[in-house]
Design goal:
Layout lengths: L3 H15 L1 H11 L3 E2 L4 H8 L3 H13 L3 E3 L5 E3 L6
Antiparallel strand pairs: 1-3, 2-3
Helix pairs in contact: 1-2, 2-3
Keywords: Signal
Length: 83
């Protein structure tokens, strides 16, 4: 049973690569639905995406209206989890 946890940790980045939008969305949700200058690096790391993938995913999220830049410079995710 003690081998299950490391296997799950190893599987997480692979899952992120399979669906980069879901990986980034989950990372933003876990950060409280807001990306700030303070938590941006942690959100990126949690997503498991590289810089190029992140740029593509954020562009897609903006295009679909799921994220918006706020007046204070933060980025807010709006979906079922983040109303």
């Amino acid at each position: 049973m003690r081998f299950v946890f490391p296997i799950l940790l190893l599987a997480t980045p692979a899952l992120a690569q399979d669906d980069p939008v879901a990986a980034m969305t989950t990372a933003i949700e876990d950060a409280g639905c807001i990306v700030t200058a303070e938590n941006g690096d942690a959100v990126l790391a949690a997503s498991g995406l590289n810089e190029e993938q992140t740029i593509e995913v954020i562009a897609e999220l903006y295009t679909t209206g799921l994220v918006a830049l706020q007046e204070d410079g933060t980025m807010k995710l709006t979906n079922e989890t983040c109303p």
